[in-house]
Design brief:
Elements (H helix, E strand, L loop, with lengths): L8 H14 L8 E2 L1 H8 L3 H13 L3 E3 L5 E3 L4 H22 L5 H19 L3 H18 L3 H18 L8 H16 L3 H19 L7
């Protein structure tokens, strides 16, 4: 899930609102008002409405029958189901792409891992999350299945919003150590071991996250 310069105003608004929702700046249940957003972001109503429609598709904004919009609320059950879906999709993409990974791909994954760790070290959770997601993106795109990558991007965005993990959360260690071990397998030419370790990341993460979701 790369964060690049958006090509349109609508894309810029989508990125800004997504970031605010993911980081918790716009908490679940927040009422979304077109005019207020347009004024705050310095754009017209049209890109705001288009962005809200896009974020509704992504599951980050709920649109009620009376057309009022709120940042999506999530139950523990829904959150765990979303994490499960993220694991299924990402692991499928990794499995389909792992045999196609070249030394260049693996070097890129190593670079993304460094950026992931550095983002957490400096407290930049958005940069860390993007780099961590890109680690998997390299393998998924190596499968040639761009539709799957699009679905993974949507689920990752929703999952990051739900978890709203700070840079100091000990849950990140599951990904840091998991990625490191995946890379070790890949650099040794052990694609089977890399795939099994990658799958284990999601099992470990779900086990550790479940007791903490929505805990008072």
């Amino acid at each position: 899930m790369s964060y690049t310069v958006p090509p349109t105003r609508t894309a810029a608004v989508v990125q800004q609102l997504r970031n605010e929702i993911v980081t918790g700046e716009l908490p679940p249940g927040t009422l979304i008002k077109d005019a207020e957003l347009a004024a705050r972001l310095g754009v017209s109503i049209t890109p705001v409405r288009e962005a809200i429609a896009q974020l509704s598709v992504e599951g980050l904004i709920d649109i009620a029958p009376n057309r009022t919009r709120h940042v999506t609320k999530m139950t523990q059950k829904n959150a765990l189901e979303l994490i499960d879906v993220m694991g299924v999709l990402a692991c499928a993409g990794f499995e389909w792409g792992v045999e196609n990974l070249t030394a260049t791909h693996i070097d890129l994954m190593r670079q993304r891992q460094k950026e992931f760790v550095e983002g957490l070290r400096t407290g930049n959770v958005l940069a860390a999350g993007a780099a961590g997601a890109d680690f998997s993106t390299v393998a998924i795109l190596a499968s040639g299945n761009r539709e799957l990558q699009s679905m993974v991007d949507l689920v990752v965005a929703r999952t990051l919003r739900i978890l709203a993990m700070g840079a100091d959360s000990n849950l990140w260690e599951v990904w840091i150590s998991g990625h490191e071990e995946v890379l070790e397998h890949l650099e040794a030419g052990d694609t089977t071991g890399a795939l099994e370790r990658y799958k284990k990341i999601y099992v470990e993460f779900r086990t550790r996250i479940e007791p903490t979701l929505f805990a008072e």
